[in-house]
């Protein structure tokens, strides 16, 4: 699904590699879903900023230890979760 969307919008070569939870066969907020970024880019957790479109996803990556930016396109209220994003 992710690869076909990238191709449809002419974004091939911009996002390399494309990471999907299909690769690790888990759903977010499972830690293995977020570990893919560290493994794919050979970076430390502290070197990655995760931009999430869902508040729940921002919370999951924050709990994993990433710096987090919530892209709140719909100007939704902050979800009442155990953590908050670093920025909105």
Provide structural commentary:
The chain is an alpha+beta fold and about 90 residues long. Helices cover about 30% and strands about 10% of the residues. It has a single domain (about 1-70), classed as Rossmann fold, CATH 3.40.50.1000. It contains three helices and two strands. Strands 1-2 form a two-stranded parallel ribbon. Helix 3 (about 55-65) links the parallel strand 1 and strand 2. The longest helix has 11 residues, at about 30-40. The model has no long low-confidence stretch (mean pLDDT about 90).
What are the defining features of this structure?
88 residues; alpha+beta; Rossmann fold; 3 helices; 2 strands; 9% strand
CATH architecture: 3-Layer(aba) Sandwich
Question: How many domain modules?
Answer: 1
What share of residues is helical? 25-40%
Q: Give the assembly state of these chains.
A: single chain
Backbone structural class: alpha+beta
Whole-number mean pLDDT: 90
What is the CA-based Rg, rounded? 14 Å
Instruction: Give the CA-based shape.
Output: globular
CATH superfamily grouping:
HAD superfamily/HAD-like
Uncertain runs with pLDDT below 50, 5 residues or more? none
The helix/strand order is HHEHE
CATH topology: Rossmann fold
CATH class: Alpha Beta
* Beta-strand content: 5-15%
Total DSSP helices: 3
Biggest β-sheet description: 2 strands, parallel
State the total count of DSSP E strands: 2
The neighbouring-strand order within the major sheet is 1-2
């Amino acid at each position: 699904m992710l690869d076909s969307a990238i191709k449809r919008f002419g974004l091939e070569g911009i996002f390399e590699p494309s990471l999907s939870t299909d690769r690790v066969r888990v759903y977010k907020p499972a830690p293995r879903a977020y570990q893919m970024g560290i493994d794919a880019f050979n970076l430390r957790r502290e070197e990655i900023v995760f931009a999430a479109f869902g508040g729940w996803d921002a919370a999951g990556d924050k709990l994993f230890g990433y710096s987090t930016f919530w892209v709140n396109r719909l100007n939704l209220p902050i979800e009442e979760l155990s953590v908050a994003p670093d920025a909105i």
